[in-house]
Amino acid sequence: MNAITQPITLDVSRNGTIRTLADQFTSNTTFLKELLQNARRAGASKVEVNYVDGILTLTDDGHGITDPQVLFCIGKSEWQDMDMMAQENPFGIGFAASLFAADRITVESGSWRLDADTADILAFEPLDLEAVEGQQGTRISLIIKDALKEEKQPLCEEKAQELFAALAQAFPIDILFNGELLPAPLRQQQGGKALEAGALQGCLVPVTEEGVLQRWNSAVVIVLQGFVMESLCSDFYFPGFSAAFHRNLPMKAEQRAINPERLSVLHLDSSKVRARVPDRDQLIDRDAVYRGIKEELLELCRARLVEAKANLSAKMFIDSFFHRCQNWGMMHLLNDLPLPKGWVHTVDALAAYGENDVFEWGDEHIQPNAEVFLANLEYEEPDPLSAVCTYLAATRTRVIQNYTQLDAGHWVKANTLDVYANASSESYGFVVKATPIEVLGEATVALYDWMPCSVVICEGISLTPSDSRFAAVEVEKAAVYDCESKTLLVTRGAEQGHISDMLLALDTYGESDEKDRDETLLDKDATKIYQLKILHTSDSPVAVLQQHLSETLGHLAQALAGKSFTVTVDAERRISIQ
After folding, report:
1. Which Pfam families would you find in this protein's record (predicted)?
2. Is the pLDDT of residue 508 over 90?
3. Averaged confidence pLDDT in the chain
């Protein structure tokens, strides 16, 4: 077989490359970052940006560009500092991004000047250079395309300064916009904590009373090569954006007022962490990089929490760092401290499907004591709630809602009944038995959407919890459903509102996400039981019956005028009228 000797080499179509290059940039303002970076790399101490009538001009005081051809050679950059070249991974196509954003471009540097339409440049037309009087630095002027100047676009007159303010936040050299120096509160300073991925500056977690009282933020702003990449929330999970800093957005006035020393900024080491080109707004191996960052930040924060606890009062530590302990796996630091007030409540009235429940929260944290608490009580469980909530309201027993998040060694664990953990498939974790005291009367009534239900009228109700650590109590003004006997217990002193709450603990009365509760039926059932209570507690049953008939049959008074009837109730509770 004869071999083919024709040589084959890699070839690149420059026309095709240019046609597709514009689509590689995910942001139409990438060129601004590249122009600013070029000034920094040229050793400039500042960049003056002027934007008037759609013409953008950037002037720097760097060493300038000796070879203009470098600007228009994709894949090649002019680098004066070999150390910078090693650290920043130059790609050489950043300046090309400006060709797609402008109709015309002018560049002056040293002793030469170039002025050309970008369409001619992209068509590979020869470009003429003009000799000028030598000057330090570089000036680049762009006549911005109309599409970028339209309303709501990044380079409209109203938003241009905001855009550059965002780019200036962490930039290492000064940026002036139309003569105004833009703030750079996130700029890297000397020192800082050395991490594997870069240098961390800022307090991260204050450990003194003075530090806590100042404004601080435990979110960490991530910066690469002078530009904010994103911001990790206080739990360091990503992607996340803190309230104070958002990628590609400038800080608001009140955020700029925060003392920069109270902020935490991680300046990534560009020799270890690389950005994805051409935009450089995403990290290569982003997930792996942020996992490593999170691990280091957590270790630092945990050590700072230990130091803060040693320096601060218990109240200040809880108020300032309770949620940080949750986020950073340090709940054991709270084991010997007061229980946060926001985690404990008492019930002030009977709870009915979360609507009529009245929770009271304490004003102070709860100091370690021998009090017995309940935890993880679910107020949506209907059967036991009538008696349970009446008991809680009568005894002011305190309930912990986020109990499972506390460390196993917390002092309150020894004094708490965890309803959820104590429950079984056969029984609820905390049951209160309701027993009538001195029964005054019994009856069977038919209620809305129910089978006929037994009602007991009594002087009082004895409430006995299933756990012996909770003492029994007697109540004289309540309406309680006893789930064991399936009986409605109503005391002499109960009001109609107590009865309504009891019924709502057992039935929705047609209420759903799409439908309101049937208040008419609820009121009808509550009135029926309330009148039964009056009948059995009144000294004059005749007066009660007369009142009841007047209320329910008043509309028949004219038709019944002059008539008389005899009402008889026999031993079997059957009613006959003659």
Report:
1. HATPase_c_3
2. no
3. 80
